[in-house]
Design brief:
Length: 97
């Protein structure tokens, strides 16, 4: 228990998430790179991925994922949710797999 009677709860932080179609990454990025990605990333079952977008995009990222991260940063998003059911976005490459 806090002894400070004036203490108030701190509002939780909300971080924006960019939602994109999995069509904006290659099958190789999805199945080979992302499972071993050293940054925070979580698979959404068979539906896609949640990926943290770092401030500095690593030059070793696949070009398709780097483009998604650049768009996320341009929109001030800290996270990307890749979802197979999301429509394709304008301005990003599309891969048919």
């Amino acid at each position: 228990m806090n002894d400070n009677q004036d203490a108030r709860p701190i509002d939780p932080t909300i971080e924006p998430m960019l939602v994109l179609s999995t069509a904006h990454i290659t099958q190789e990025t999805c199945n080979t790179f992302l499972p071993t990605y050293p940054g925070p990333a979580w698979e959404k079952g068979e539906y896609g991925w949640f990926i943290y977008v770092p401030e500095d995009v690593d030059e070793t990222l696949p070009v398709d994922l780097a483009a998604c991260m650049a768009l996320a940063r341009a929109k001030s998003a800290f996270w990307i949710m890749l979802d197979r059911d999301e429509p394709e976005a304008d301005g990003l490459p599309v891969f048919d797999w």
